[in-house]
Amino acid sequence: TQTVSQSDAHVTVFEGDSVELRCNYSYGGSIYLSWYIQHHGHGLQFLLKYYSGNPVVQGVNGFEAEFSKSDSSFHLRKASVHWSDSAVYFCAVRVGGSALGRLHFGAGTQLIVIP
Amino acid sequence: GPKVLQIPSHQIIDMGQMVTLNCDPVSNHLYFYWYKQILGQQMEFLVNFYNGKVMEKSKLFKDQFSVERPDGSYFTLKIQPTALEDSAVYFCASSLAGQNTEVFFGKGTRLTVV
Question: How large a percentage of chain A has pLDDT more than 70?
């Protein structure tokens, strides 16, 4: 079964802490990986993506993610979180080989940042 | 940045009635999608649409669902008839082309079937 796994349903940190949100996938072949953020009551906002090249990609608002083929992972990190980073974060995989490849989402990780 | 607009933001409808959800995708995008998110759960793919045709659909895209984009106007999702289990937030998305292009999402339409 092909899956996108976000092992932590909730992560709670204090403002200024670093954070890592985990994402593992089980798809083979060429894939396109991305992270989205969803604030309560809003739609998805794109954070960053990886398809090829440098495995560490930078996104908006100080987020970065690192692709690891050996670990089948694409973890999201931020060095110093702000209370406004509190939201649900979704990892998504788009399978290659077709321009119509749909996004497969993980279950999401709710990040709670305590001021 | 580019925006996908969804109208309305909320819709309450009686079970068995028809509902049409409207989406105004990013203007130069060619691929359109609908996703469904039940409260507190993950986003689930429904359908993608390109060049006037449904190219791929999931098991969630029941026979009561249909999509169209007549003459480059709104990209619509129609549910006829609606059922209680159709209550969810429906997100429209669009992308320019290709597998390594960003997919832009709208803010969603919260559908409540009563």
Answer: 93
> Could you name the CATH architecture of B5-113?
Sandwich (2.60)
CA closest to B39 among chain A residues: A41
Cβ contact B100–A46 (<8 Å): no
Below-70 pLDDT ranges, chain B: 98-100
Q: Helix, strand, or coil here: B91?
A: strand
Between CA B66 and CA B64 the distance in angstroms is 7
pLDDT of residue B19: 97
Which residue has 């090829």 as its token pair?
A52
- Contact at CB, B99 and A34, closer than 8 angstroms: no
CATH architecture, domain defined by A4-114: Sandwich (2.60)
Q: Which residues of B touch A32 (CB under 8 A)?
A: 99-100
Q: Which residues of A touch B99 (CB under 8 A)?
A: 30, 32, 51, 94-99, 101
CA distances from A32 to A53, A92, B38 (A): 12, 8, 25
